[in-house]
Amino acid sequence: MANIPTEPVLDSTLGLLRDGYQFIGRRCDRLQSDIFQTRLRLEKTICMRGAAAAEVFYDPEKFSRQNAAPKRVQKTLVGEGGVQGLDGAAHRQRKQIFMALMTPERLQQLSDLTLHHCRQYAQRWQGQPQVVLFEQVNEILCRAVCAWSGVPLAEAEVAQRTLELAAMIDGVGNLGFRYVQGVQARKRVEAWIAAVIEQVRASQLSAPDKTAIAAFAHHRDDQGRLLDTHAAAVDVINVLRPTVAIGRYIVFAALALHQHPDCYLKLKANEDNYRTLFVQEVRRFYPFFPFAAARIKEEFDWQEYHFPKNTLVLLDLYGTNHDSDRWQEPEKFWPERFSHWSENAFDFIPQGGGDYQKNHRCAGEWLTIKLMDQVLDFLVNELEYDVPPQQLEVKLSRMPTIPASGFIINNVKLNTEAQY
Q: In this prediction, what percent of the chain has a pLDDT beyond 70?
C-alpha cells in the first residue's frame, strides 16, 4: 500500500482558518493528489476531494457520522442528539420523519408561503431608501418555515428569532465572537422549541397535521417511547435553521443575476427550464458547505491507500464542485452546463452526495431547490430594483461566506399585477 501524502506541518488548524473553502483544494494541488493527511487541532485527519472520494465517503459500511462533527459545530450548527449524529437504522428511521415532510404538496405549501411573504416585504421595500437583501430574505424564510412547521412565531419575535437562527449558521466557521454568539443563540432557540414541544405534548398547543412540530413531538421509537424533548427540539431546529440558511443561496442567485445580466432574458423566458439550470449552477459555483466530516468505522483499503479505524475524514464539497476533471471551466458561471449533466450523485455535492433516499445526509435538498426557484422567479418577474455600488466580494476565507455588503438593492418597485 502507498502512503497517503502528508502536509509537512505540525498542525493545519490555522491554515484552515486562513484558507477556508480552499483549504483542501490548495493542498491537493500543492501535493498533486486528491487525498492527503494532516492534523487539525492535533488530530490526524484525512482530506479528500472528487467524485471517487465522495462515492466511498458516502458508503455507510465504511464511514460513520458519530463523533465526526467538532463540538463547535454541534454547539452552533447541528446541535447534539439530532439526526446528523446518527448512523444505520437509527439514522434511517429519524430521517424518514424529515422525508415525510418533503412531499411535493408540502414543499409547494412552503413555496407559496415564501412567495406570499416576499410580496408583503416588497411592498414595504418600495418606500425604503435601500434594502439589505440578505437580512430581509432571512426574515422571509424564518416567517415562512415557522408557519409551515407549526411553530408559533409572534410578530414581536420575528427579528429576534431570525437573528438567532442566522447566528447559529454564521458562528460555525469561527472560534471568536461569532462562535460565542452562535452558541448563545442555539441555547435560546433550543429552549424556545423545547417549550413548544412540551406545550404540544400537554395539549396546550395545537400542532397541525403533517408539520415538523407535530411529527417530532409525537414520534415514538420501536419501544413506543417519545423522543427525548431535547432531541426532538434539535431536529425541529434542523428544519428551521437550514431553511433560513437558504437565504445565502438566494443572495448568491441575486448576485449571479447582477454579475451575469445576459442570464436575465433567459430567466424571463425560462425556455427548457432555464431557471432550474441557473439554480443548480448557483449551488455549484458559490460556496455553501465547505466540507463534510465522518469517521472510519473499520479499517479498509481504497485505491492504493489504507484507512485506519476511527480516523477523521473530511470530504471537500466546494472543491469537488469545482473539480476541473469533472467540470469544464469550473470557475466560469455557466448554467447551460446542467443541460447535459449526467446527474451523477457524487460529482455535484453542494449539500452532500449519495442517493437521496438512502445515504444522502441532507433531507432538505429538494426544499432548497424549490425555494431558490420560487424566489428567483419573484426577483426576475415581479420585482424591479437597482443595485448601487457596494462591496460584493465573496471571501472564501470566511466560512460561511456571503457578499460583504449583504447585497443591497434600492429603487424597488413591485409590479402592479403582483400587488394584492
A: 93
pTM here? 0.93
Q: Is residue 1 assigned to a domain?
A: no
- Give how many domains the chain has, as a whole number: 1
**Average pLDDT across the chain, whole number:** 92
Q: Report the run of H or E that residue 34 belongs to, with start and end.
A: none
CATH number at residue 265: 1.10.630.10
Sign of CA dihedral 116, 160, 239, 400: positive
The helix/strand/coil state of 143 is helix
Cα gap 8→55, rounded to integer Å: 27
Q: What is the mean pLDDT of residues 302-313?
A: 96
Enumerate residues 6+ apart whose C-beta is below 8 A from 240: 142, 145, 146, 149, 151, 165, 189, 193, 212
Place of cell 501535493: 31
DSSP string, 329-378: STTS--GGGGGG----TTT--BTB-S-TTTT-S-TTHHHHHHHHHHHHHH
Report pLDDT for 360. Answer: 46
pLDDT, tens digit (0-9, with 9 covering 90-100), for 57-69: 999 999 998 888 8
- How many whole angstroms separate alpha carbon 39 and alpha carbon 45? 5
pLDDT > 90: percent of the chain: 80
Residue 226 pLDDT greater than 70, yes or no: yes
372 neighbors 246 (Cβ within 8 angstroms) = yes
Q: How far is CA 206 from CA 18, 23, 210, in A?
A: 48, 47, 12
Instruction: Determine, yes or no, domain membership for 3.
Output: no
Grid coordinates representing 249 are 443561496
User: Distance between CA atoms of 296 and 316, rounded to whole angstroms?
Assistant: 16
Q: Which three cell numbers stand for residue 370?
A: 424549490
